[in-house]
Amino acid sequence: MDQHQMTLVIAAIVVVVVIAAVAFFLTRKRRSQRLRERFGPEYDRVVKKEGQIGRAESVLEIRAARIEKFQIRPLTSAMRADFTSRWMTVQTQFVDDPKGSVTRADQLVNEVMKARGYPVADFDQRTADISVDHPVVVENYRAAHDIALRHSRGQASTEDLRRAMVHYRSLFDELLQDSVPVRKEARA
Predict the structure, then answer these.
(1) Residue 4 φ/ψ region, left for φ over 0, alpha for ψ in the -120 to 50 degree band, beta for the rest
(2) What mean pLDDT do residues 42-63 have?
(3) pLDDT digit string, tens, across residues 13-32
(4) What is the CA radius of gyration of the chain?
(5) Could you give the C-alpha distances from 128 to 54, 139, 156, 168, in angstroms and in order?
(6) Alpha-carbon torsion 181, 146, 144, 73, what sign?
(7) Which of 57-66, 80-89, 118-127 is the least confident region?
(8) N or C terminus: fewer CB in 10 A for the chain?
(9) Nearest to 42 by CA among 122, 120, 142
(10) Nearest-5° angle of CA 137, CA 143, CA 148?
């Protein structure tokens, strides 16, 4: 092989490597954009927690794949009416029993999640699962749960308990919606 042919081979290899690198980075950018759109503020929270974008995106993709296996379903009209009525009772009881109301609100949110088809094993897994379809309000759920835990240790004020009820209500309202969430593709 003469010098000219060697130069052409090297140039071709460089062009292929550059094209592959550009394709790789564009694919990663699209992946990040899709996950950011799907998970909203949850994306940033997981990136901060994991410390690396690639690791965080893998966590979010695992969540999305896990939730795809579940049979998430809408509530029937009768179920929605029952849950709404029960929520109104819990909310009304807040004035006389704020601590008990927060506990009942947490239980009712868990019941709605279960009725919709979300597994309710442990709290961390519940929040990970719910973040796939409800990424905006999952932070409310975490905040409410944190207040409930502080309440169980005697460290929550009545104002804290009121905020917990507001947080639970936002997730409760979203879970009561008619539709099954339309899931956007999360894989690259």
Answers:
(1) alpha
(2) 92
(3) 998 888 988 888 888 889 88
(4) 23
(5) 17, 11, 25, 16
(6) positive
(7) 118-127
(8) N
(9) 142
(10) 130
